[in-house]
Amino acid sequence: MNMPELQAKVRQIEIRTRRLVSDMMIGQYQSVFKGQGMDFDDIREYQPGDEVRNIDWNVTARLNQPFIKQYVEERELTIMLMVDLSASGTFGSGLQTKHELAAEVAAVLAFAAQRNNDKVGLTLFTERVEKYVAPAKGNRHVLRLVRDILEHTPDRRGGDLQHALQHLQKTFRRRAVMIVLSDFLDPLPVSALQQAQRRHDVIAVQITDPHEETLPALGRITMEDAETGEVGEISLRNEEEISAFSHHQSHAQEELEQQLCGIAIDHIRLRTNDPYVPALSKFFRTRLERQRRV
Fold first, then answer.
1. How far from the centroid of its chain's Cα atoms is residue 71's Cα?
2. What is the DSSP letter of 272?
3. Residues 20, 181: Cα–Cα separation, whole Å
4. Is 78 helix (H, G, I), strand (E, B) or coil?
5. Which of 31, 109, 136, 174 is deepest in the core (most CB within 10 A)?
6. β-strand partners of 78
7. What domains can you pick out in the chain, each with its CATH number?
8. How confident is the model at residue 61 (pLDDT cuts 50, 70, 90)?
9. pLDDT, tens digit, for every residue of 178-206?
10. DSSP string covering 211-259, please?
């Protein structure tokens, strides 16, 4: 992608995602993603039923009657976007590849964070961390992140989420909302995700393509693994063989979802041939309802 094409693509994504953020997502974003703690706001006289541990003993002693500290939620968040650039993301059977969809969804989340005055950072990874951009605020920063996702040419073909998570655990100490955008075709690093979840709020955004779930009757075809380069043949001559392929893919998907659920990581599945806004909105609604029940 040359520079004029890149600038046009970034501008197109900016216009489209800004409208989405303004029209419907900012309220959902604010409701679902909470601040990281509580900030001191003021003091007031103690009333029956107040938490004794909130009493300000210095003011109480000085004024000879009990006062308590009041706190407000710390609103500022840090959003860390982790985008998988392994070669399997270059696949797309329709109008966009998995990488292109990941870039647009990342832009939506980044602009929502920017509108809410939150910091946004970026980690691009394959078998290693290809690029790390420290969290910051501002429109120019968000546009830079979108450009980085679109224009970066990976050095490696494979993917290693475990290595990326370990790198962030060492590099970024503060608690963050960590959003992983990947097709999750590689074995899930359960232990590394579990460790990250103890400190951060980890969300898995899975980007898939419909032709990864089922294929038409193509006969005997040669397929190449985009990440390893391995070539193999599969037969898709009849309904039985097609059904076996679909069953295998369905089982792998169920296993992934069970693993994520088992370590309490929220999961959104987006497809390259479907609008992503309804799926994001449904995720926000479901998560908010769960939070209200807690």
1. 30
2. T
3. 19
4. strand
5. 109
6. 119
7. 3-33+76-293 (3.40.50.410), 38-74 (no CATH)
8. confident
9. 999 999 999 999 999 999 998 899 999 99
10. GGT-----EEEEEE-TTT--EEEEEE-SHHHHHHHHHHHHHHHHHHHHH
